[in-house]
Design goal:
Layout (H helix, E strand, L loop, with lengths): L2 H4 L19 H17 L1 H14 L7 E7 L5 H6 L3 E2 L9 E5 L8 E4 L5 E4 L4 H7 L14 E9 L2 E8 L13 H13 L7 H16 L4 H17 L3 H11 L8 E7 L2 H13 L3 E7 L1 H4 L1 E7 L6 E7 L9 H4 L9 H9 L2 H5 L3 E5 L2 H7 L12 E2 L3 E5 L3 E3 L3 H9 L5 H10 L1 E11 L8 H10 L11
Parallel strand pairs: 1-4, 5-7, 8-11, 12-16
Antiparallel strand pairs: 1-5, 2-3, 3-4, 6-7, 8-12, 9-10, 10-11, 13-14, 14-16, 15-16
Length: 467
């Protein structure tokens, strides 16, 4: 497939703002990685850690870099601008530091300083854990659960290696936090939130009320960070692949510092409600997917402008609904369930009882495919395998299904009697973990490939063990 075919180019969009074309930037990648290689060649501690990350966790060092700071004598802003980097606002660093980020890619930002300072920072999920695992007794600037915490790990050959923890903040200044108690309260409430209700309508309303309550106390980026910490843990507890890979990454204290996106599935009736909840937490709608009549599904991708968290939302969709603003206009009930609707019928709404369909993180694609089988985790054939994007699901986690759910599906003629007996006896595929590798700065998704894996994960075709 040509690169242009894999870029996101929605057709028949009702809104010109829905048009996205995520490019590939091989020259920018070459430029960025040359600075990473220079740093690793001069910093033996960081180089040893990068090698352990690849060997022990199938994770690339460049995928967990938070930022790189260099003096203006070594990195000219004109060179960055020629490559497409844009200068960001100046109120998120100290005086004398300029921030440049490439807006159409996933590359980490460069900070240019008027001092002789060279610094590279990575972003583990939990900084205390990272320092404990590596046996580093260095102090941490910033109190627990503050928007930004930072530890200076080691300096070698004029390069400082650091680590930062972010909690809904995209700046670079460690300062006293005024809302840590409120953040911890939100985190606790999200951990304990009710997910099982008499009706999904009641559940959606209660979830939105909970989010609204937290938004009245702390800003949306902080709410989003707390929400997704608990969402990843809820997903992980029922996904062995996630448990195994998390334990591999935690041998280095990284947690899910390499997460790429979170995938939710929704019924048609509740899709706009779910989108509204995400938007209240500060998410912006990015590209839509229109897979058409053959595939029977659509999706809206959302991204947070401060947290940079990405959410991929799936829903059954009719061809004519590609012409409307389906994430906001609302979708009516259909008698026939597609792949997404059936998954919801079997397990429940992703944002309620079932949790995410999958978590996707950035890995060394072939490295992870080689290592996971050693732990008894099998990986499905790749559904994307390009120079710039590789993707594959782990074999799905099979969940038992509540009898009342299967009874309703049978009564509604959504499944056959044979499928009813199969689901009752063997359960149905619930969740996956996704192995992903991005290169050349490509931050989009491949519509044809995603359509293929949506079909492959339809519960009605997953009969055999390990399907």
């Amino acid at each position: 497939m040509d690169v242009d075919d894999a870029r996101v180019k929605p057709k028949n969009s009702a809104n010109p703002a829905d048009q996205f074309d995520w490019g590939v930037y091989p020259e920018v990648e070459k430029f960025v990685l040359s600075y990473v290689d220079t740093f690793l060649s001069k910093h033996s501690f960081a180089k040893a850690l990068s090698e352990r990350m690849l060997a022990n966790a199938s994770t690339k060092f460049s995928d967990v870099i938070d930022y790189m700071m260099l003096p203006e004598s070594e990195l000219r802003h004109e060179d960055l601008e020629k490559l497409g980097f844009k200068e960001r606002r100046a109120d998120i660093t100290k005086d004398g530091v300029r921030i440049f980020k490439h807006p159409s890619s996933y590359f980490f930002p460069f900070l240019i300083t008027n001092q002789s300072k060279r610094e590279v920072a990575i972003h583990p999920e939990f900084l205390d854990h990272f320092l404990q695992v590596l046996g580093l007794g260095v102090p941490i600037d910033g109190e627990p659960y503050a928007p930004l915490r930072k530890a200076y790990i080691k300096e070698e050959n004029g390069y400082m290696f650091a680590a930062v923890e972010r909690r809904g903040y995209d700046g670079y200044i460690v300062q006293d936090a005024q809302d840590t108690d409120l953040y911890l309260s939100a985190l606790s409430k999200f951990f304990k939130r009710k997910r099982h209700f008499e009706s999904d309508e009641e559940g959606m309303k209660e979830t939105e009320r909970l989010v609204d309550d937290q938004l009245g106390r702390i800003d949306s980026a902080r709410v989003s960070d707390a929400f997704f910490i608990t969402e990843r843990i809820y997903w992980e507890r029922r996904n062995r692949a996630g448990q195994v890979q998390r334990s591999r990454q935690d041998t280095l204290g990284m947690g899910w510092g390499n997460q790429d996106h979170h995938t939710y599935r929704s019924s048609r009736e509740n899709f706009s409600n779910m989108i509204r909840i995400f938007e209240k937490m500060g998410y912006n709608c990015r590209e839509k997917y229109y897979a058409g009549e053959e595939a029977g599904w659509g999706a809206q991708i959302l991204e947070h402008p401060i947290c940079y968290t990405v959410v991929f939302t799936d829903v059954d969709l009719l061809p004519e609904e590609t012409e409307i603003d389906f994430p906001h206009q609302g979708l009516q009930h259909l008698n026939r369930l597609g792949t997404v609707g059936l998954w919801i019928g079997l397990h429940g709404e992703s944002i309620l009882q079932s949790g995410m369909h999958h978590l996707e993180a950035k890995f060394s694609f072939d490295g992870l495919r080689t290592e996971l089988p050693k732990y008894g985790i099998q990986v499905m054939p790749p559904f994307s395998y390009f120079d710039f994007l590789k993707q594959a699901f782990t074999v799905g986690e099979r969940w038992q299904v509540e009898k009342k759910r299967i009874d309703k599906l049978l009564a509604d003629n959504s499944i056959t009697k044979e499928q009813y007996e199969m689901f009752l006896k063997d359960g149905a595929i619930g969740s996956h973990m996704e192995d992903l590798e991005r290169t050349q700065g490509f931050k989009g998704f491949n519509k044809a490939s995603v359509t293929k894996i949506i079909k492959a994960t339809d519960p009605r075709v997953q009969h055999g063990p390990g399907a």
